[in-house]
Write a structure and sequence with these properties.
623 residues; alpha/beta; Rossmann fold; Arc Repressor Mutant, subunit A; 4 domains; six-stranded parallel sheet; 28 helices
Length: 623
Protein backbone atom coordinates (compact mmCIF):
# COMPACT_ATOMS: atom_id res chain seq x y z
CA UNK A 1 0.00 0.00 0.00
CA UNK A 2 1.32 3.43 -0.98
CA UNK A 3 1.94 5.75 1.99
CA UNK A 4 0.76 9.36 1.66
CA UNK A 5 3.57 11.26 3.41
CA UNK A 6 1.53 14.47 3.17
CA UNK A 7 -1.44 13.02 5.07
CA UNK A 8 -1.87 14.57 8.55
CA UNK A 9 -2.52 11.16 10.13
CA UNK A 10 0.75 9.78 8.75
CA UNK A 11 2.67 12.89 9.93
CA UNK A 12 1.16 12.56 13.40
CA UNK A 13 2.38 8.95 13.65
CA UNK A 14 5.71 9.29 11.87
CA UNK A 15 6.93 12.59 13.35
CA UNK A 16 5.25 12.82 16.75
CA UNK A 17 4.62 9.15 17.51
CA UNK A 18 0.89 9.48 18.25
CA UNK A 19 -1.63 7.06 16.78
CA UNK A 20 -4.68 9.34 16.82
CA UNK A 21 -5.67 13.00 17.04
CA UNK A 22 -7.55 14.20 20.13
CA UNK A 23 -10.88 15.99 20.16
CA UNK A 24 -11.16 18.65 17.46
CA UNK A 25 -7.50 18.36 16.38
CA UNK A 26 -8.28 16.25 13.29
CA UNK A 27 -10.87 18.72 11.96
CA UNK A 28 -8.63 21.72 12.65
CA UNK A 29 -5.58 20.13 11.03
CA UNK A 30 -7.56 19.09 7.94
CA UNK A 31 -9.05 22.58 7.57
CA UNK A 32 -5.75 24.46 8.01
CA UNK A 33 -3.75 21.99 5.88
CA UNK A 34 -6.24 22.67 3.10
CA UNK A 35 -5.61 26.41 3.27
CA UNK A 36 -8.48 27.54 5.52
CA UNK A 37 -8.29 30.26 8.17
CA UNK A 38 -9.11 29.23 11.75
CA UNK A 39 -9.49 30.57 15.28
CA UNK A 40 -8.70 27.78 17.74
CA UNK A 41 -9.67 27.91 21.40
CA UNK A 42 -8.23 24.91 23.20
CA UNK A 43 -7.24 24.50 26.86
CA UNK A 44 -3.62 24.44 27.96
CA UNK A 45 -2.35 20.89 27.51
CA UNK A 46 -5.01 20.19 24.87
CA UNK A 47 -2.51 19.97 22.00
CA UNK A 48 -2.76 23.42 20.37
CA UNK A 49 0.74 23.24 18.89
CA UNK A 50 -0.08 20.19 16.78
CA UNK A 51 -2.94 22.18 15.21
CA UNK A 52 -0.40 24.27 13.30
CA UNK A 53 2.70 22.04 13.38
CA UNK A 54 1.10 19.14 11.48
CA UNK A 55 -0.36 21.45 8.77
CA UNK A 56 3.02 23.22 8.51
CA UNK A 57 4.78 19.91 7.84
CA UNK A 58 2.06 18.74 5.43
CA UNK A 59 2.14 21.98 3.43
CA UNK A 60 5.97 22.05 3.39
CA UNK A 61 6.05 18.50 2.02
CA UNK A 62 3.63 19.71 -0.63
CA UNK A 63 6.16 22.34 -1.71
CA UNK A 64 4.48 25.33 -0.09
CA UNK A 65 7.50 26.50 1.91
CA UNK A 66 7.78 28.09 5.35
CA UNK A 67 5.24 28.48 8.15
CA UNK A 68 5.76 31.60 10.23
CA UNK A 69 4.82 31.16 13.90
CA UNK A 70 4.13 34.34 15.88
CA UNK A 71 5.26 33.73 19.45
CA UNK A 72 5.58 36.29 22.26
CA UNK A 73 8.27 34.63 24.38
CA UNK A 74 11.89 33.65 23.77
CA UNK A 75 11.71 30.64 26.13
CA UNK A 76 8.72 29.23 24.27
CA UNK A 77 10.46 29.61 20.90
CA UNK A 78 13.57 27.84 22.18
CA UNK A 79 11.68 24.85 23.60
CA UNK A 80 9.33 24.47 20.62
CA UNK A 81 12.20 24.58 18.12
CA UNK A 82 14.26 22.15 20.22
CA UNK A 83 11.34 19.70 20.36
CA UNK A 84 10.73 19.94 16.60
CA UNK A 85 14.39 19.39 15.75
CA UNK A 86 14.41 16.37 18.09
CA UNK A 87 11.44 15.03 16.11
CA UNK A 88 13.26 15.55 12.79
CA UNK A 89 11.49 18.74 11.69
CA UNK A 90 13.70 21.61 10.46
CA UNK A 91 12.70 24.61 12.56
CA UNK A 92 14.38 27.76 13.87
CA UNK A 93 13.70 31.00 15.73
CA UNK A 94 14.75 34.60 15.23
CA UNK A 95 15.13 36.61 18.43
CA UNK A 96 17.53 38.79 20.38
CA UNK A 97 19.51 35.84 21.78
CA UNK A 98 21.12 35.18 18.38
CA UNK A 99 24.31 36.75 17.05
CA UNK A 100 24.08 38.60 13.74
CA UNK A 101 25.86 35.67 12.03
CA UNK A 102 23.35 33.17 13.44
CA UNK A 103 20.40 35.37 12.46
CA UNK A 104 21.77 35.75 8.91
CA UNK A 105 22.18 31.98 8.58
CA UNK A 106 18.57 31.39 9.69
CA UNK A 107 17.31 34.06 7.29
CA UNK A 108 19.13 32.28 4.44
CA UNK A 109 17.48 29.02 5.48
CA UNK A 110 14.11 30.76 5.49
CA UNK A 111 14.61 32.38 2.09
CA UNK A 112 15.63 29.05 0.57
CA UNK A 113 12.34 27.50 1.67
CA UNK A 114 14.16 24.67 3.46
CA UNK A 115 12.84 25.68 6.88
CA UNK A 116 9.53 24.09 7.81
CA UNK A 117 8.76 26.53 10.64
CA UNK A 118 10.23 29.82 11.78
CA UNK A 119 9.29 31.26 15.20
CA UNK A 120 9.50 35.03 15.68
CA UNK A 121 8.05 37.76 17.90
CA UNK A 122 5.37 40.08 16.46
CA UNK A 123 7.61 43.14 16.53
CA UNK A 124 10.16 41.39 14.30
CA UNK A 125 7.52 40.16 11.89
CA UNK A 126 6.12 43.65 11.33
CA UNK A 127 9.60 45.13 10.79
CA UNK A 128 9.86 46.57 7.21
CA UNK A 129 13.04 44.61 6.39
CA UNK A 130 11.48 41.33 7.51
CA UNK A 131 8.24 42.09 5.63
CA UNK A 132 10.31 42.61 2.47
CA UNK A 133 11.77 39.13 2.94
CA UNK A 134 8.26 37.73 3.33
CA UNK A 135 7.28 39.52 0.11
CA UNK A 136 10.08 37.70 -1.69
CA UNK A 137 9.05 34.34 -0.24
CA UNK A 138 5.44 35.01 -1.21
CA UNK A 139 6.33 35.89 -4.79
CA UNK A 140 8.11 32.53 -5.12
CA UNK A 141 5.20 30.61 -3.55
CA UNK A 142 7.21 29.72 -0.44
CA UNK A 143 5.11 31.41 2.26
CA UNK A 144 2.93 28.60 3.53
CA UNK A 145 1.01 29.56 6.69
CA UNK A 146 0.82 32.11 9.51
CA UNK A 147 0.26 30.66 13.00
CA UNK A 148 -0.50 33.32 15.63
CA UNK A 149 0.00 31.78 19.07
CA UNK A 150 -1.35 33.33 22.30
CA UNK A 151 -3.85 35.25 20.15
CA UNK A 152 -5.63 36.72 23.19
CA UNK A 153 -2.69 39.17 23.39
CA UNK A 154 -4.31 41.13 20.53
CA UNK A 155 -7.40 41.95 22.58
CA UNK A 156 -7.71 44.91 24.94
CA UNK A 157 -10.22 42.77 26.88
CA UNK A 158 -7.79 39.85 27.19
CA UNK A 159 -5.73 39.24 30.31
CA UNK A 160 -2.35 39.80 28.62
CA UNK A 161 -2.83 42.55 26.02
CA UNK A 162 0.28 43.44 23.99
CA UNK A 163 0.37 46.45 21.67
CA UNK A 164 2.69 44.80 19.17
CA UNK A 165 0.02 42.17 18.39
CA UNK A 166 -2.27 44.88 16.98
CA UNK A 167 -0.09 45.27 13.89
CA UNK A 168 -0.52 41.62 12.90
CA UNK A 169 -3.64 42.49 10.92
CA UNK A 170 -1.27 43.64 8.17
CA UNK A 171 -0.39 39.98 7.46
CA UNK A 172 -3.86 39.47 6.03
CA UNK A 173 -3.80 42.82 4.22
CA UNK A 174 -0.41 42.11 2.65
CA UNK A 175 -0.77 38.36 2.03
CA UNK A 176 -4.52 37.70 1.74
CA UNK A 177 -4.07 34.29 0.10
CA UNK A 178 -1.81 32.90 2.88
CA UNK A 179 -3.91 30.98 5.44
CA UNK A 180 -3.82 31.98 9.09
CA UNK A 181 -4.55 30.08 12.28
CA UNK A 182 -4.86 32.01 15.56
CA UNK A 183 -4.70 30.02 18.79
CA UNK A 184 -5.38 30.71 22.46
CA UNK A 185 -6.27 28.80 25.62
CA UNK A 186 -8.46 31.49 27.16
CA UNK A 187 -10.97 33.90 25.71
CA UNK A 188 -14.49 34.77 26.80
CA UNK A 189 -17.09 36.00 24.29
CA UNK A 190 -15.96 39.63 24.27
CA UNK A 191 -12.30 38.63 23.83
CA UNK A 192 -13.12 36.18 21.01
CA UNK A 193 -15.02 38.89 19.15
CA UNK A 194 -12.07 41.26 19.60
CA UNK A 195 -9.57 38.70 18.27
CA UNK A 196 -11.71 38.12 15.17
CA UNK A 197 -12.09 41.85 14.56
CA UNK A 198 -8.46 42.87 15.14
CA UNK A 199 -6.89 39.98 13.19
CA UNK A 200 -9.46 40.22 10.35
CA UNK A 201 -10.63 36.63 10.90
CA UNK A 202 -14.29 37.23 10.03
CA UNK A 203 -14.21 34.43 7.42
CA UNK A 204 -12.29 31.99 9.63
CA UNK A 205 -13.80 28.83 11.08
CA UNK A 206 -13.96 28.98 14.86
CA UNK A 207 -13.08 25.80 16.76
CA UNK A 208 -13.92 25.82 20.48
CA UNK A 209 -12.83 22.76 22.45
CA UNK A 210 -14.04 21.95 25.93
CA UNK A 211 -12.30 24.12 28.52
CA UNK A 212 -12.46 21.32 31.07
CA UNK A 213 -9.22 20.07 32.59
CA UNK A 214 -10.59 17.12 34.60
CA UNK A 215 -7.17 16.18 36.01
CA UNK A 216 -6.89 19.52 37.85
CA UNK A 217 -8.41 19.76 41.33
CA UNK A 218 -9.56 23.28 42.23
CA UNK A 219 -9.30 24.38 45.87
CA UNK A 220 -9.85 27.88 47.27
CA UNK A 221 -9.29 28.45 50.98
CA UNK A 222 -9.83 31.42 53.27
CA UNK A 223 -6.66 33.39 53.86
CA UNK A 224 -5.69 33.45 57.52
CA UNK A 225 -3.14 35.68 59.27
CA UNK A 226 -0.23 33.48 58.07
CA UNK A 227 -0.90 32.61 54.42
CA UNK A 228 2.68 31.48 53.76
CA UNK A 229 2.23 28.80 56.41
CA UNK A 230 -1.03 27.77 54.73
CA UNK A 231 0.93 27.40 51.49
CA UNK A 232 3.69 25.41 53.16
CA UNK A 233 1.17 23.00 54.72
CA UNK A 234 -0.42 22.47 51.32
CA UNK A 235 2.94 21.75 49.63
CA UNK A 236 4.17 19.44 52.38
CA UNK A 237 0.89 17.55 52.65
CA UNK A 238 0.35 17.02 48.94
CA UNK A 239 3.41 17.95 46.91
CA UNK A 240 6.64 17.15 48.69
CA UNK A 241 9.45 17.27 46.07
CA UNK A 242 7.04 18.16 43.24
CA UNK A 243 7.47 20.93 40.67
CA UNK A 244 5.06 23.80 41.18
CA UNK A 245 4.37 27.47 40.58
CA UNK A 246 3.35 29.98 43.28
CA UNK A 247 1.88 33.25 42.02
CA UNK A 248 2.14 36.48 44.04
CA UNK A 249 0.97 39.96 43.10
CA UNK A 250 4.09 42.00 43.87
CA UNK A 251 7.78 41.58 43.18
CA UNK A 252 8.59 42.15 46.84
CA UNK A 253 6.21 39.38 47.92
CA UNK A 254 7.76 37.06 45.34
CA UNK A 255 11.25 37.65 46.75
CA UNK A 256 10.13 37.26 50.37
CA UNK A 257 8.06 34.13 49.74
CA UNK A 258 10.79 32.39 47.74
CA UNK A 259 13.37 33.14 50.46
CA UNK A 260 10.98 31.93 53.19
CA UNK A 261 10.18 28.65 51.38
CA UNK A 262 13.90 28.11 50.76
CA UNK A 263 14.56 28.60 54.49
CA UNK A 264 11.85 26.00 55.17
CA UNK A 265 13.77 23.44 53.11
CA UNK A 266 12.11 23.72 49.68
CA UNK A 267 13.93 24.33 46.39
CA UNK A 268 12.29 27.69 45.64
CA UNK A 269 13.30 30.38 43.14
CA UNK A 270 11.93 33.90 42.52
CA UNK A 271 10.89 35.16 39.08
CA UNK A 272 9.65 38.64 38.15
CA UNK A 273 10.28 41.32 35.54
CA UNK A 274 12.49 43.34 37.91
CA UNK A 275 15.19 40.67 38.15
CA UNK A 276 18.30 40.81 35.99
CA UNK A 277 17.64 39.14 32.62
CA UNK A 278 20.40 36.60 33.20
CA UNK A 279 19.03 35.67 36.64
CA UNK A 280 15.52 35.23 35.24
CA UNK A 281 16.84 33.00 32.48
CA UNK A 282 18.86 30.87 34.91
CA UNK A 283 15.88 30.42 37.20
CA UNK A 284 13.61 29.50 34.31
CA UNK A 285 16.17 27.03 32.96
CA UNK A 286 16.48 25.37 36.37
CA UNK A 287 12.69 25.12 36.65
CA UNK A 288 12.44 23.50 33.22
CA UNK A 289 15.40 21.15 33.61
CA UNK A 290 15.42 20.11 37.28
CA UNK A 291 12.87 18.13 39.28
CA UNK A 292 11.08 19.50 42.31
CA UNK A 293 11.66 23.25 41.79
CA UNK A 294 9.01 25.63 43.14
CA UNK A 295 8.93 28.83 41.09
CA UNK A 296 7.54 31.81 43.01
CA UNK A 297 6.53 34.40 40.45
CA UNK A 298 4.47 37.32 39.32
CA UNK A 299 2.35 36.94 36.20
CA UNK A 300 5.55 37.81 34.27
CA UNK A 301 6.22 34.06 34.44
CA UNK A 302 4.25 31.43 32.66
CA UNK A 303 3.02 32.11 29.16
CA UNK A 304 4.41 29.43 26.90
CA UNK A 305 5.89 27.35 29.72
CA UNK A 306 5.54 23.84 28.30
CA UNK A 307 6.82 21.90 31.32
CA UNK A 308 4.33 19.00 31.45
CA UNK A 309 4.91 17.72 35.00
CA UNK A 310 3.97 20.81 37.05
CA UNK A 311 1.99 19.14 39.80
CA UNK A 312 0.56 22.25 41.47
CA UNK A 313 -0.16 25.92 40.86
CA UNK A 314 -0.80 28.03 43.95
CA UNK A 315 -2.04 31.60 44.25
CA UNK A 316 -1.15 33.62 47.34
CA UNK A 317 -3.03 36.59 45.87
CA UNK A 318 -6.20 36.87 43.85
CA UNK A 319 -5.67 37.17 40.05
CA UNK A 320 -7.42 39.92 38.07
CA UNK A 321 -10.06 37.78 36.41
CA UNK A 322 -11.14 34.24 35.54
CA UNK A 323 -9.13 34.19 32.30
CA UNK A 324 -5.92 34.85 34.26
CA UNK A 325 -6.86 32.27 36.87
CA UNK A 326 -7.68 29.66 34.23
CA UNK A 327 -4.53 30.37 32.21
CA UNK A 328 -2.28 30.26 35.27
CA UNK A 329 -3.83 27.16 36.85
CA UNK A 330 -3.72 25.50 33.42
CA UNK A 331 0.06 25.35 33.66
CA UNK A 332 -0.39 22.42 36.03
CA UNK A 333 -0.88 18.87 34.83
CA UNK A 334 -0.19 19.36 31.12
CA UNK A 335 0.79 15.68 30.97
CA UNK A 336 -2.74 14.65 31.94
CA UNK A 337 -1.75 13.33 35.38
CA UNK A 338 -3.29 14.68 38.60
CA UNK A 339 -2.50 18.30 39.52
CA UNK A 340 -3.76 20.81 42.09
CA UNK A 341 -4.86 24.41 41.65
CA UNK A 342 -4.80 25.94 45.14
CA UNK A 343 -5.58 29.53 46.10
CA UNK A 344 -5.85 31.40 49.37
CA UNK A 345 -8.18 34.37 49.27
CA UNK A 346 -9.18 37.09 51.72
CA UNK A 347 -10.78 40.47 52.21
CA UNK A 348 -7.63 42.42 51.31
CA UNK A 349 -7.51 40.68 47.92
CA UNK A 350 -10.97 41.97 47.04
CA UNK A 351 -10.13 45.51 48.19
CA UNK A 352 -6.80 45.58 46.32
CA UNK A 353 -8.17 44.29 43.02
CA UNK A 354 -11.08 46.75 43.05
CA UNK A 355 -8.72 49.61 43.92
CA UNK A 356 -6.36 48.72 41.03
CA UNK A 357 -9.25 48.88 38.58
CA UNK A 358 -10.56 52.18 40.01
CA UNK A 359 -7.10 53.79 40.07
CA UNK A 360 -6.09 52.71 36.55
CA UNK A 361 -5.89 55.41 33.84
CA UNK A 362 -8.25 53.41 31.59
CA UNK A 363 -11.55 54.79 30.32
CA UNK A 364 -14.78 54.05 32.19
CA UNK A 365 -16.01 51.49 29.64
CA UNK A 366 -12.85 49.43 30.09
CA UNK A 367 -13.09 49.71 33.89
CA UNK A 368 -16.69 48.49 33.82
CA UNK A 369 -15.70 45.40 31.83
CA UNK A 370 -12.82 44.71 34.22
CA UNK A 371 -15.14 45.09 37.24
CA UNK A 372 -17.50 42.57 35.68
CA UNK A 373 -14.63 40.13 35.13
CA UNK A 374 -13.48 40.57 38.73
CA UNK A 375 -17.04 40.03 39.99
CA UNK A 376 -17.14 36.69 38.14
CA UNK A 377 -13.89 35.62 39.80
CA UNK A 378 -15.13 36.70 43.23
CA UNK A 379 -18.30 34.67 42.67
CA UNK A 380 -16.09 31.65 41.92
CA UNK A 381 -14.06 32.25 45.08
CA UNK A 382 -17.16 32.63 47.27
CA UNK A 383 -19.08 29.75 45.65
CA UNK A 384 -20.46 26.94 47.79
CA UNK A 385 -21.33 24.79 44.74
CA UNK A 386 -19.06 23.11 42.16
CA UNK A 387 -16.06 25.30 41.25
CA UNK A 388 -15.60 23.63 37.86
CA UNK A 389 -19.22 24.22 36.86
CA UNK A 390 -18.79 27.95 37.55
CA UNK A 391 -15.42 28.09 35.81
CA UNK A 392 -16.68 26.36 32.67
CA UNK A 393 -19.94 28.31 32.78
CA UNK A 394 -17.94 31.53 32.48
CA UNK A 395 -16.68 30.31 29.11
CA UNK A 396 -20.19 29.33 28.05
CA UNK A 397 -19.82 25.59 28.67
CA UNK A 398 -22.46 23.62 30.59
CA UNK A 399 -21.30 20.80 32.86
CA UNK A 400 -22.27 18.56 35.76
CA UNK A 401 -20.76 18.74 39.28
CA UNK A 402 -17.20 17.49 38.83
CA UNK A 403 -16.43 15.56 42.02
CA UNK A 404 -12.88 16.92 41.84
CA UNK A 405 -12.97 20.34 43.50
CA UNK A 406 -12.97 21.25 47.20
CA UNK A 407 -16.70 22.05 47.23
CA UNK A 408 -17.63 18.72 45.62
CA UNK A 409 -15.28 16.66 47.80
CA UNK A 410 -16.21 18.39 51.08
CA UNK A 411 -19.36 20.49 50.59
CA UNK A 412 -19.00 23.59 52.76
CA UNK A 413 -21.48 24.37 55.52
CA UNK A 414 -23.50 27.53 54.94
CA UNK A 415 -25.46 29.86 57.19
CA UNK A 416 -28.02 32.57 56.60
CA UNK A 417 -25.95 35.74 56.87
CA UNK A 418 -28.77 38.11 55.92
CA UNK A 419 -29.23 39.60 59.42
CA UNK A 420 -25.49 39.87 59.98
CA UNK A 421 -25.15 41.67 56.65
CA UNK A 422 -27.93 44.10 57.60
CA UNK A 423 -26.19 44.88 60.91
CA UNK A 424 -22.91 45.54 59.09
CA UNK A 425 -24.48 47.75 56.43
CA UNK A 426 -26.41 49.63 59.11
CA UNK A 427 -23.20 50.27 61.03
CA UNK A 428 -21.49 51.72 57.94
CA UNK A 429 -24.55 53.91 57.40
CA UNK A 430 -24.44 55.12 61.05
CA UNK A 431 -20.75 56.08 60.66
CA UNK A 432 -21.64 58.32 57.77
CA UNK A 433 -24.65 59.77 59.56
CA UNK A 434 -22.57 60.47 62.64
CA UNK A 435 -20.41 63.31 61.29
CA UNK A 436 -19.97 62.04 57.73
CA UNK A 437 -16.97 59.93 58.72
CA UNK A 438 -15.85 56.76 56.92
CA UNK A 439 -13.80 53.96 58.44
CA UNK A 440 -12.06 50.77 57.45
CA UNK A 441 -12.81 47.10 58.11
CA UNK A 442 -10.94 46.80 61.42
CA UNK A 443 -12.77 49.65 63.14
CA UNK A 444 -16.13 48.52 61.75
CA UNK A 445 -15.69 45.04 63.20
CA UNK A 446 -14.52 46.46 66.55
CA UNK A 447 -17.77 48.45 66.83
CA UNK A 448 -19.95 45.51 65.82
CA UNK A 449 -18.25 43.25 68.37
CA UNK A 450 -18.28 45.87 71.13
CA UNK A 451 -14.51 46.17 71.46
CA UNK A 452 -13.69 49.41 73.27
CA UNK A 453 -10.57 50.80 71.57
CA UNK A 454 -9.01 54.28 71.68
CA UNK A 455 -10.47 54.97 68.25
CA UNK A 456 -13.96 53.90 69.36
CA UNK A 457 -13.71 56.26 72.35
CA UNK A 458 -12.30 59.09 70.22
CA UNK A 459 -15.35 59.09 67.94
CA UNK A 460 -17.90 58.06 70.58
CA UNK A 461 -18.99 55.06 68.57
CA UNK A 462 -19.89 53.11 71.72
CA UNK A 463 -23.06 55.22 71.73
CA UNK A 464 -24.15 54.12 68.25
CA UNK A 465 -27.24 51.87 68.02
CA UNK A 466 -25.06 49.26 66.25
CA UNK A 467 -22.52 49.11 69.09
CA UNK A 468 -21.92 45.44 70.10
CA UNK A 469 -24.89 44.16 68.05
CA UNK A 470 -22.53 41.57 66.54
CA UNK A 471 -20.80 40.34 69.69
CA UNK A 472 -22.03 36.82 68.93
CA UNK A 473 -19.80 36.51 65.82
CA UNK A 474 -16.03 36.19 65.67
CA UNK A 475 -13.76 38.61 63.85
CA UNK A 476 -13.17 35.91 61.19
CA UNK A 477 -16.92 35.55 60.62
CA UNK A 478 -17.38 39.30 60.29
CA UNK A 479 -14.52 39.51 57.79
CA UNK A 480 -16.22 36.79 55.75
CA UNK A 481 -19.49 38.78 55.80
CA UNK A 482 -17.71 41.96 54.68
CA UNK A 483 -15.78 40.10 51.97
CA UNK A 484 -19.04 38.77 50.57
CA UNK A 485 -20.70 42.20 50.67
CA UNK A 486 -17.78 43.74 48.78
CA UNK A 487 -17.68 40.80 46.35
CA UNK A 488 -21.39 41.26 45.64
CA UNK A 489 -20.94 45.01 45.14
CA UNK A 490 -23.06 46.15 48.09
CA UNK A 491 -20.06 47.81 49.75
CA UNK A 492 -17.09 49.51 48.10
CA UNK A 493 -13.82 50.94 49.37
CA UNK A 494 -12.40 54.42 48.82
CA UNK A 495 -9.05 56.19 49.09
CA UNK A 496 -5.65 55.04 50.24
CA UNK A 497 -7.05 53.95 53.63
CA UNK A 498 -9.71 51.70 52.02
CA UNK A 499 -12.59 53.26 53.95
CA UNK A 500 -16.00 51.67 53.44
CA UNK A 501 -19.08 53.10 51.76
CA UNK A 502 -22.49 51.76 50.73
CA UNK A 503 -23.45 51.10 47.12
CA UNK A 504 -26.97 51.73 45.89
CA UNK A 505 -27.71 47.97 45.95
CA UNK A 506 -27.16 47.90 49.74
CA UNK A 507 -30.64 49.35 50.16
CA UNK A 508 -32.30 46.04 49.15
CA UNK A 509 -30.16 44.11 51.62
CA UNK A 510 -30.94 46.55 54.44
CA UNK A 511 -34.64 46.14 53.72
CA UNK A 512 -34.32 42.35 53.97
CA UNK A 513 -35.26 41.85 50.30
CA UNK A 514 -32.07 39.86 49.55
CA UNK A 515 -31.04 36.64 51.30
CA UNK A 516 -27.33 35.99 51.77
CA UNK A 517 -26.21 32.40 52.28
CA UNK A 518 -22.59 32.52 53.40
CA UNK A 519 -19.93 29.88 53.74
CA UNK A 520 -19.11 28.97 57.36
CA UNK A 521 -15.47 30.03 57.87
CA UNK A 522 -13.22 26.99 58.03
CA UNK A 523 -11.02 26.42 61.05
CA UNK A 524 -7.38 26.55 60.03
CA UNK A 525 -5.41 23.34 60.77
CA UNK A 526 -2.79 23.63 63.45
CA UNK A 527 0.71 24.40 62.34
CA UNK A 528 2.56 21.26 61.34
CA UNK A 529 -0.62 19.23 60.86
CA UNK A 530 -0.31 16.69 58.09
CA UNK A 531 -2.90 15.15 55.78
CA UNK A 532 -5.45 17.89 56.40
CA UNK A 533 -5.84 18.92 52.79
CA UNK A 534 -5.39 15.64 50.97
CA UNK A 535 -7.86 14.60 48.35
CA UNK A 536 -10.10 11.57 48.56
CA UNK A 537 -7.42 9.25 47.19
CA UNK A 538 -4.97 10.09 49.97
CA UNK A 539 -2.13 9.98 47.41
CA UNK A 540 0.39 12.75 47.21
CA UNK A 541 0.82 14.54 43.90
CA UNK A 542 4.09 12.71 43.26
CA UNK A 543 2.60 9.30 43.95
CA UNK A 544 -0.36 10.00 41.69
CA UNK A 545 1.74 11.48 38.93
CA UNK A 546 4.89 9.42 38.73
CA UNK A 547 3.78 5.96 39.84
CA UNK A 548 1.29 5.97 36.95
CA UNK A 549 0.05 2.51 37.98
CA UNK A 550 3.52 0.98 37.70
CA UNK A 551 4.40 -2.14 39.65
CA UNK A 552 7.76 -2.53 41.43
CA UNK A 553 9.80 -3.71 38.43
CA UNK A 554 8.18 -1.23 36.06
CA UNK A 555 8.86 1.55 38.56
CA UNK A 556 12.55 0.59 38.56
CA UNK A 557 12.60 0.66 34.75
CA UNK A 558 10.88 4.05 34.82
CA UNK A 559 13.53 5.50 37.17
CA UNK A 560 16.33 4.08 34.98
CA UNK A 561 14.75 5.64 31.88
CA UNK A 562 14.46 8.98 33.67
CA UNK A 563 18.14 8.89 34.61
CA UNK A 564 19.08 8.08 30.99
CA UNK A 565 16.81 10.87 29.69
CA UNK A 566 18.39 13.36 32.08
CA UNK A 567 21.85 12.65 30.63
CA UNK A 568 20.61 13.00 27.04
CA UNK A 569 18.83 16.26 27.87
CA UNK A 570 22.01 17.72 29.38
CA UNK A 571 24.00 16.77 26.26
CA UNK A 572 21.44 18.47 24.02
CA UNK A 573 20.90 21.49 26.27
CA UNK A 574 17.15 20.88 26.43
CA UNK A 575 14.57 20.24 29.15
CA UNK A 576 14.12 16.51 29.78
CA UNK A 577 10.48 16.50 28.66
CA UNK A 578 11.53 17.61 25.15
CA UNK A 579 13.33 14.26 24.77
CA UNK A 580 10.39 12.20 26.10
CA UNK A 581 7.57 13.07 28.49
CA UNK A 582 7.05 11.11 31.71
CA UNK A 583 3.89 9.48 30.36
CA UNK A 584 5.89 8.08 27.41
CA UNK A 585 8.64 6.77 29.71
CA UNK A 586 6.00 5.22 31.97
CA UNK A 587 4.43 3.42 29.00
CA UNK A 588 7.88 2.12 27.99
CA UNK A 589 8.47 0.92 31.54
CA UNK A 590 5.08 -0.78 31.69
CA UNK A 591 5.22 -2.42 28.22
CA UNK A 592 8.93 -3.29 28.46
CA UNK A 593 9.42 -3.58 24.67
CA UNK A 594 12.04 -6.06 23.49
CA UNK A 595 12.55 -4.79 19.93
CA UNK A 596 12.60 -1.58 17.93
CA UNK A 597 9.36 -2.64 16.29
CA UNK A 598 7.65 -3.00 19.71
CA UNK A 599 9.16 0.29 20.89
CA UNK A 600 7.78 2.10 17.82
CA UNK A 601 4.27 1.27 19.05
CA UNK A 602 4.72 3.37 22.21
CA UNK A 603 2.79 6.67 22.08
CA UNK A 604 5.22 9.58 21.70
CA UNK A 605 7.96 7.64 19.89
CA UNK A 606 8.26 9.07 16.36
CA UNK A 607 10.51 7.82 13.58
CA UNK A 608 13.40 10.23 14.24
CA UNK A 609 13.44 9.51 17.99
CA UNK A 610 13.23 5.78 17.35
CA UNK A 611 16.26 6.04 15.08
CA UNK A 612 18.19 8.32 17.47
CA UNK A 613 17.40 6.64 20.81
CA UNK A 614 15.76 3.27 20.17
CA UNK A 615 18.73 1.00 20.79
CA UNK A 616 19.80 2.99 23.87
CA UNK A 617 16.31 2.69 25.34
CA UNK A 618 16.26 -1.07 24.78
CA UNK A 619 19.68 -1.30 26.46
CA UNK A 620 18.39 0.65 29.51
CA UNK A 621 15.33 -1.60 29.73
CA UNK A 622 17.46 -4.75 29.61
CA UNK A 623 19.79 -3.60 32.41
Amino acid sequence: MKIDHHAPQHILQEVFGYSAFRGAQADIVQHVSGGGDALVLMPTGGGKSLCYQVPAIARHRGGRGVTLVVSPLIALMHDQVGALEEAGVHAAFLNSTLSSEEASRIEREMMSGRLVMLYAAPERITNPRFLAQLDSLHERGLLSLFAIDEAHCVSQWGHDFRNEYLELSLLHERFPDVPRVALTATADDITRADIIERLRLQEARVFISSFDRPNIRYTIVEKDSKPREQLLRFIRDEHEDDAGVVYCQSRKKVEETAAWLEAEGLKALPYHAGLDTGVRQRHQDRFLREDGIVMVATVAFGMGIDKPDVRFVAHLDLPKNIESYYQETGRGGRDGAAANAWMTYGLADVVNQRRMIDDSPSNEEFKQVQRGKLDALLALAEATDCRRQRLLGYFGEASQPCGNCDNCISPPATWDGTEAARKMLSCIYRFHQNGGQRFGAGHLIDVLRGKLTDKVGQYGHQSLSTWAVGADLSEQQWRAVLRQLIALGHVFTEGEYHTLALAETARAVLKGEVQLLLRVPASAPKRGARGSTRGASGKSGRAAAEALDLDGQAQQRFEALKAWRSEVAKEHGLPAYVIFQNVTLAEMARANPQSLDELSGISGVGAKKLEAYGREILRVLEA
